[in-house]
Amino acid sequence: MRPVLEVKNLKMYYNTRAGIVKAADDISFTLAQGESMGLVGESGCGKTSVSMSIMRLLAENANIVNGNIYFKGKDIVKLNDEEINKIRWAGIAMIFQAAMNSLNPVYKVGDQIIEAILAHEPNVTFEESRARVAELYKLVGLDPKRMDNYPHEYSGGMKQRAIIAMSLSCNPDIIIADEPTTALDVIVQDMILKEMAKIQKKLNMSMIYISHDIAVIAEVAEKIAIMYAGKIVELSDAVTVFKKPAHPYTVGLMSSFPSIHGEKKKLVTIPGEPPNLLNAPDHCRFAPRCPFATKECWEKMPLYEEISPNHFVACFHPQNLRKQVSKDA
Amino acid sequence: MLKYIGKRLVQIFILLVVYVAVVFFLLHSMPGGIKAMLTTNPNLTPQARDSILHAFGLDQSLWVQFLTYLKNIFTLNLGVSFSFYPTPVWSIIAERLPRTIFLFATATLISFFIGFSSGKSLAWKRGKVSEYVATIIGVITYTVFTPLLIFVLIWFFGAYLGILPINQFLNPDLWVNTTFDAQTVFLYLLLTVSIVGAAILFSFIVAQKVSHRVKTKKIILYTSTAIASALSIFWWAISPYGIYGADIIWHMVLPVLSVAIISYAGTMLVMRDSMLETIKEDFITTARAKGLPDKVVRDKHAARTAMLPVITNFVLSMGFVVSGGLITESLFSWPGMGMTLLNATLAKDYPLASGALIFTGIFVLFAHLVVDIVYAFLDPRIRY
Ligand SMILES: Nc1ncnc2c1ncn2[C@@H]1O[C@H](COP(=O)(O)OP(=O)(O)OP(=O)(O)O)[C@@H](O)[C@H]1O
Ligand SMILES: [Mg+2]
Q: What per-residue confidence (pLDDT) applies to A1?
């Protein structure tokens, strides 16, 4: 099956006064129709940068210096403004990290959703679009009467739901959800995520969930990509990543978070500083924090390789690691 | 909304009483005040003096005088002007206030429009040479000494190019044989502009209600504006007032230009700043992500929201507009409130001066109210 989205060797850099920030450095992955993927990593590792590249919503100082992003065969990197505008929302919609501020304070929430529908589907009448928004409101658990309220009349959770409704409004092929629930309390978080996963299955959309919390992602994603310092260091299906993590960073991440399921794990944070992407070194970026680092790790960049079917890892010592983990257990 | 307006009206009333008090006590405490002016004549007999003081009520205590004054003001009994004796102050103000309002409303709308759209574009396309040029020119016109700017304009357009009339309200040579007076023509002008303005506003509201697509809205708005303007121009063309109205408008060009130049830059600079802030907001990213065209993101989302601080700033700069207006009117001999106030003060025409001051105050307070109401419409967060 042809993937809906194929990211190939994407490099997106920020130019800053201090130097070049390699926020997305040689990122590759594919996403099939109906598939849900999780993108996990510490704060500042470049998750948002990757998703912004896919939407091509780049900051003024940001450049895609290399790579391709194929959406249904078209390379997003090369499209002109008009073409990319057609793909935005109707093809790929996004729930932003700062979802709370994603609504314009001066327009009614419903109208902001309708605006997206009318922009992409010129044959839909206003009444039809209103009816669709009402449907979406019901789907995400909001009272359709609330359509005519302004954002400041919504609670945080309601705004979040409205934004999910908005992301669904043009029936996109892909929704990128960048930490869609971080601003909410844990219970609402869990509920909303589960609802999103349900809707995603029902509408057979593809989904990219972004989070720093691997436990949250494991609940909803079939496939997980672990990012560290602008690079994907491990990518596989959720079960493999959980049962047979190959990259030391993945192991570290998993022990950093207690699972929602309540099975108690010791909370260990990964020692060392989170990486600085400014003038990133040419050797393995995790080496300074890695308990298994050898001389090789300090000299070369490990290749991103398929160590077993559909299990990609960028590490010189993935085998070592597995032994280590089983010893601990 | 009505409750909000009602509340603001009460506030305005209280402010007005305070303002009248300030004006009253200021005039009374001035050296060479009215009492001294009436009574220092050495040829007056004591009896004559007392009867003058009694006739003017000046023998009463200051509080009683103030209350009487307040009562008179709210019953629009402003007394009789000394310098235009025996014309009542009220009728002088009634004649001149509309001229000031017309001049300033026109200039303000123009300067707001220019400042708003240029500030918007400057922020949207950052870092171009035009941005630096416009910002520097803006800062210069914003900070330059107003009379100097006006002299330069008068010299350039009136003397050097010789294309615009440089003073007065009209050209007397043209009006010698007319049977109607300038005020009538002027009021017709004012009426026309108000009708056209109301028609545009009405069609804007209708467009908002009827359609939800930007294109249709624009068509409705533009056609109705064009029709209203064409109709009014047609009416003026066939009416006998045609060229006289044009004469007044022609005389307005330079004063309007001056006030607009003095005040556009404030709007432009604030709009630019506010727009730069707004562009960083997350809802702008959302609007872009929705695949809306660049222009829609700029106008409908960024500019519409960035406009709010500009309006606040506009309220704050209103006093500045009044003082600038006084200078402008005097320099162009535009017979409005500013010039009236200045001349009345110089001539020690107390009733007229205080009347003019008070009505300028009322004018500013009501302008505030209008802006507040507009603001309440534009920002749903502060409604009620
Ligand atoms: N406009 C910018 N200019 C320069 N550097 C930037 C810019 N935006 C982001 N960065 C840097 O790029 C790196 C990646 O940022 P990004 O926002 O993609 O991280 P993230 O993984 O989404 O983090 P978080 O979990 O905190 O959202 C960070 O080091 C950040 O400081
Ligand atoms: Mg982020």
A: 64
- Chain B contact present for A59, CB below 8 A: no
Q: Does B291 contact A119 at a Cβ distance shorter than 8 Å?
A: yes
Residues of chain A scoring pLDDT < 50: 259-267, 326-329
pLDDT on residue A327? 47
Determine contact: A89 vs chain B, CB below 8 A: yes
Q: Report the nearest-CA residue for atom 24 of ligand 1.
A: A43
Q: What is the pLDDT averaged over residues B329-344? A: 87
Positive/negative CA dihedral, B49, B53, B54, B59:
negative
Scored b (16 or more CB within 10 A) or e, B138-176 reads beebbeeebeebbeebbeebbeeeeebbbeebbeeeeee
Chain B contact set for A81 (CB, 8 A)? 294
Q: What is the C-alpha radius of gyration for chain A, rounded to an integer number of angstroms?
A: 20
Strongest mean pLDDT among B31-40, B48-57, B256-265: B256-265
Query: Distance of alpha carbon B229 from its chain centroid, rounded?
Result: 22
Segment holding A31, helix H or strand E: strand A19-31
Cis status of the peptide bond prior to B86, with omega within 30 of 0: yes
Q: How far apart are CA B159 and CA B284, in angstroms?
A: 49
pLDDT score at A272: 72
> Does B125 touch chain A if contact means CB atoms closer than 8 Å?
no
User: B276, exposed or middle or buried, with CB in 10 Å at 0-12, 13-18, 19+?
Assistant: middle
Predicted confidence at residue A265, as pLDDT, reads 46
DSSP string, A59-99: -TTEEEEEEEEEETTEEGGG--HHHHHHHBTTTEEEE-TTG
The pLDDT of residue B1 is 75
In the DSSP assignment, the letter for residue B312 is: H
Q: How far is Cα of residue B29 from the mean position of the Cα atoms in its chain?
A: 30
Question: Which chain B residues touch A86 with a CB distance below 8 Å?
Answer: 291
b/e per residue, A153-183, with b = 16+ CB within 10 A?
ebeebbbbbbbbbbbbbbebbbbbbbbbbbb
| Whole-number Å distance between alpha carbons of B257 and B157 | 11
